[in-house]
Amino acid sequence: MDLEDLADRLERAASRVGDEIDRTVHQQARLGRALIRERASGRPGPNIITGQYVASWRIQSFPVPDGGGAVIGTHAPQGRRLEFGFYDMTDSIGRHFYQVPRPHVGPAANELSGEMESAFKDACDRIFRS
Fold first, then answer.
1. What is the C-alpha to C-alpha distance for residues 79 and 11, in angstroms, rounded to an integer?
2. What is the pLDDT confidence band of residue 43, given thresholds at 50, 70 and 90?
3. pTM: predicted TM-score of the whole model, two decimal places
């Protein structure tokens, strides 16, 4: 390959970067949400009672230059309490509570990090393939 070919390949690749990165980010966000929901569906994570907490996990997408971004989260009030637990809490009428942590986000993020690296390597292969 000479420099003329390299310049043409890089130019073609540059036109594919944004779409491919955006697609990969959203694919990984959907996978992350699925992993969180799976781990929030019974031990060692929290037990499912009504299913509302599991269903409350959302993906919020946002644009970034040459790609896209996503945040996975919930507005459910029990989210932090379930993930981290709490010790010796007293409510407004004097009841004492103790809840062990039921981590489900941290383990999902740890599992996703390995998958994410290979997903972005594959995205780079698709970008530079021509």
1. 45
2. confident
3. 0.80
